[in-house]
Every structure is written in structure tokens, then in C-alpha cells.
Request: fold
Amino acid sequence: MKKLGKIFAELLAERDIYKIGSLSKRVPKRYSRDKLQEIATAVLEGYGTICRLKKPAYIGWDLEGNPVHWVEYAFVHSSIAGEFKPVLTSRDLRNALPDSPYFIIDLMHWEKHSQKEKIKVALQSAQSYGVICDYLWGDRLALTWVNEEFKALANFPLDKITAYEGSTAEFLKEESIGEVVLLDPRAEKELGPDDLNAGAFVIGGIIDTSGKKRGITARIGDALEDAGIKVRRRKITLRGDIIGVPDRINMILDIMLRILVEEKPAEKAILEVQAPLQARWRLRKELPKRAIRYKVNGKTYRVIEKELFDEYSRWLKIRWEDFVKVLRELDLIALERKRIQHLNKISNPRLINGKTYRVILLKKAAMLCYNC
Ligand code: SAH
Reply:
């Protein structure tokens, strides 16, 4: 799946344009990650046009987004574009857009949310609009079951996406899409390369702060199947487990687009989107598996290797402070591998109540000495 910025760059290259600038201070934003993508979005949404300048501008970017100097073409805001010769317009770009799947946020369960949760659904939908514009273009994001209350809460331009008031099944029928992938954390199967060619990906417009809405994504699938749509239910996992995969609507969309558009492996996509919060959830599950139990003079200590931090930070977005926080919560002690090896030398394994402990019998003096 091609990024909008890439399609835009190809159109520029066809016109023998290899670098462009901007006469607008707002487009692209100063710290934007992908200048070309942002300019392309602004052109597509009709804020401006790429024009030939009367005299070269100093600052610009090449088609890879690297900074360059002296450009003869630039993004020009529509209010002054009339003064310049247009070379690439919104229509040109729209006509070049390839077929691309829809990413649907299904609001079927809207009424099951509290007021606070509804605000969060609206916020995550707005963030999803930002996410879709980072990779594709606004109308690829579809929201179904849109009602007046949602419209009032949605603080983003609904005319820039596909907002549909009917059901997802009706929308799919209108678009002649007969089969979808439903992202469902409770699905049996994991999302795999064979699922990436679907006509639409459905994400539940669900926020579950109370924990009462567990499992209701499946009902979105049931409703679609009842209406004759084929549904492939798939979960996104991180090394086989959904714990650690962010469950916010916009983050799921972001992960999907990193996999589909940027062609990144799922694990990398998840790591990039994950916040330390979700990384800690997973760490809490992982670390106890690695603990060694020691009994020193009758007292139990659960110890893990300090070096595990490096191992886990390769696939979990953790900082040292997250690691320490989880250690404290779980009452674990981290020691350097060398010291663990030493402890293993001076201890003997023993089975107590079905669990293995390494027992160290120390005299008080020896213990003090060990501590110093
Ligand atoms: N409590 C809900 C989940 C809400 S998360 C439930 O148990 O069904 C919001 C949406 O994000 C879900 O409807 C689903 O489409 C998507 N999602 C979240 N985590 C996911 C995962 N690990 N795999 C696939 N989809 C996921």
C-alpha cells in the first residue's frame, strides 16, 4: 500500500520536479516527521496547490524529504495561488489515488459508554484522523453508526473522513465490500500476512474503562455476519500475547498502518507505537517467569538478572525507571549476572511445596561481610 507522500512525489517526478518548498508557514509544520506527506495532505484537502514560483525560494525539500536550497516550485495557499502557475492540484492528486482499503471505526456500541468514555471515543477518533493522514488520506478512515451526539463531541473535520450514519454492513454493501478483517483482541487467529489484502479493516469504537465491555468486539463481527458479510476475526499479538499491545483505537490503527503502508514487521510496529504504560503491563507478566527464588537464613528473596533490562528493552518500550517500578511492584530484586552466578555457587537447590528454592545458609558474620 502506497503512502500518499510517495504518490505525490511520483507525480512531481513525472513533472520533472525534484524539489519543492512552501510559501505557507503552516504547511508543513516545523517539526513534522514527513514533510512531503504533510504537503500532499494539504494539497489533497484543497488548502493549496503546487505552483511554479516567480523567483526561487531558499528553503525546500527533495522528494525524500531532505532539506535542500533554492527551489522553483512550492506549495501555495489557495488564497494567493491565483497569482502563480499551478503545476499540481488537488484534482491531479485525487485522480492518481489507487484503490486502498477502508479503515472503519465501528460505533455500534456507542450507547454502552458513559459520558466520559464517549468523550474518549470521540478523542481517539480525532486522533485516528491524524493517524490516517500520516500515511494515507482522510477518506480512507470511515466511521459508521455516526449520530448527532458523536458529531457534537467530534472535534475534527468529519467532512475530511468518511462519516456514515448507517450500519457498517450497509456501508460495506454500498461500497461492494463482501469480506472484512475485524480486529478483535479475543479472536483465535493472529493477524498475518494473508489478511493484509482485505477491502476493509474494522476496529471497534470501544473504550473499556469499566471492564464491563469485555469481549463485545465479537458482537460487531456477529452483526456483520448476520448481514451476509464474511468476517475474518484477527488479533494483534506481541510474541503470542495481546498484553502489551496498546488497545486504544488510534494506536491499533497506527500499528495497522505501519504494517501495511510502511511494511514493518508487526513486532516493530507495536514497539514503535507502544507507550511505557503498556510495556509495563507486559513486563509485569514476563519478569516473574525469570525469577530465581533464594532462601537466605529462612527468608525468601526473588531475584532476576539486571541484564534482563537490555533483553526486554529490545521489544518493550521500557526505560530503566519502568523496569525498576515493575521490580518494586512485584517485590523482585535485580542483581548482576555475575553476582547471581556467585549466589548459585554458594547455594543448593531444594524443592519446598513444589517450588524450587536455592538455599543459602549463612552465618550472620558471613552475611554482613557479603553485604559490605
Ligand atoms: N473491551 C473491548 C476491546 C476494546 S479495545 C473488547 O474486549 O472487545 C478497542 C478496539 O481496538 C477493539 O474493538 C479492537 O477492534 C481493537 N483492538 C484492541 N486490542 C486489539 C488486539 N490486541 N488485537 C486486535 N484488535 C485490537
Q: What stands out?
A: The chain is about 40% helix and 25% strand. The chain has a mean pLDDT of 95. Residues 102-274 form a domain with the Alpha/beta knot fold (CATH 3.40.1280.30). The two ends are 61 Å apart (CA to CA).
